[in-house]
Automatic annotation (TrEMBL):
Domain of life of the organism encoding this protein: Bacteria
GO biological process, one term: phosphoenolpyruvate-dependent sugar phosphotransferase system
A cellular component annotation (GO) from this entry: cytoplasm
Species whose genome carries this gene: Thermomonas fusca
CDD domains documented for this protein: PTS-HPr_like
Ranges where the HPr domain occurs: 1-88
Intracellular or extracellular location(s): Cytoplasm
Lineage: Bacteria, Pseudomonadati, Pseudomonadota, Gammaproteobacteria, Lysobacterales
Name the record gives this protein: HPr family phosphocarrier protein
UniProt keyword terms in alphabetical order: Cytoplasm, Phosphotransferase system
Keyword Cytoplasm annotated: yes
Transmembrane segments: none
Signal peptide per UniProt: none
Amino acid sequence: MIRRELTITNRLGLHARATAKLVQLLSGFPCQATLEARGREVNAKSIMGVMLLAAGPGAEVVLRVDGKDEQAAADAVTALFERRFDEDS
């Protein structure tokens, strides 16, 4: 299992478009993935689950991935967060 602490740095946080990008990215990996924020843990492959976190800009989230391709999935999600979900310049 891989655990990473990530900070949301895009301007709008985990809104619908950013959440859809995250879920679409993770859907390509068979591993299990969860996100935790503000004491709530959700399936990171669920749009509704991730939206329920209501994680805004500056929020700290914990990504957990577990499975055969966990390293690749964690790296891909980290890169997406670092690119600010391809939203900000």
